[in-house]
Specification:
One of its GO terms (molecular function) is methyltransferase activity. The protein is an alpha/beta fold. The protein has one domain (7-210): 3-Layer(aba) Sandwich (Rossmann fold), CATH 3.40.50. The chain has helices at residues 7-12, 18-35, 49-63, 83-89, 102-115, 145-152, 177-183, and strands spanning 71-75, 94-99, 120-124, 136-140, 167-173, 188-191, 204-210. Strand 2 (94-99), helix 5 and strand 3 form a beta-alpha-beta unit. Helix 2 (18-35) runs antiparallel to helix 5 (102-115), helix 3 (49-63) crosses helix 4 and helix 6 packs across helix 7 (177-183). The longest helix is centred in the N-terminal third of the chain and has 18 residues, at 18-35. The radius of gyration is 16 Å and the shape is globular. The chain starts with 6 loop residues before the first helix and ends with a strand.
């Protein structure tokens, strides 16, 4: 099997522990195995796993450093993005990954278990069914912002302990001006090209919506 290494992660995240590096290294083999059974990443994309899925997910960490004890919800996680890479990077933060497709959550649980991620819980749920409250809600382009917001409205904790107030951190690409205007949300855009030099990130953003 082709061996793909997480060098691109180490290029931008230089303070990883040996355990974190080992966990990131395991991702390619784990996703290659599970993707062959349950398609969670496009087949042609699997060789680009570290750039297009793992590093893309970690773009959120360039905007917000999650604190120990904070609770983060990943809505529509699919195969575990952005939640699994973030859970590796922030082992003392609690991550709750949900998706409405059960077989995708099966992959998330299997990958998290193989990595020994004790700070991650995964559930086959729609966002609207969740009763808990969180410091941050993350997601990767599951729908337009205006449609996404009603799903998670009212699911934020009142107290913020972070450098930035509790809110949404949404990974999205393209020209977002119209979408943000349509959503009527007060959003801040962080271009990922400011943090990562690869061409893939030229039109990619973290959209931050404080609560």
């Amino acid at each position: 099997m082709l061996e793909v290494k997480p060098d691109i992660i180490l290029k931008y995240f230089t303070n990883l522990t040996e355990k974190q590096i080992a966990q990131f290294e395991q991702l390619f083999e784990l996703y290659s195995f599970w993707n062959a059974q349950i398609n969670v990443i496009s087949r042609k994309d699997i060789e680009e796993l570290y750039e297009r899925h793992v590093l893309h997910s970690l773009g959120i960490a360039k905007v917000c450093t999650f604190k120990p004890g904070e609770d983060v919800l990943d809505v529509g996680t699919g195969g575990g993005f952005p939640g699994i890479p973030l859970a590796i990077l922030f082992p003392e933060t609690n991550f709750h990954l949900v998706d409405s497709i059960g077989k995708k959550i099966k992959v998330v649980k299997e990958v998290a278990s193989a990595l020994g991620l004790e700070n991650l819980q995964a559930d086959h749920l729609r966002a609207e069914q969740i009763k808990n409250k969180y410091n941050f809600i993350v997601s990767r382009a599951v729908t337009r912002l205006g449609e996404f917001y009603p799903w998670i409205q009212g699911k934020f904790k009142k107290e913020s302990i972070n450098a930035i107030p509790n809110g949404i951190l949404y990974l999205k690409g393209g020209d977002l001006a119209e979408e943000i205007k349509e959503s009527k949300l007060k959003a801040e855009l962080y271009p990922l090209s400011a943090y990562f030099e690869e061409d893939f990130f030229e039109t990619k953003y973290v959209v931050y919506v404080p609560q």
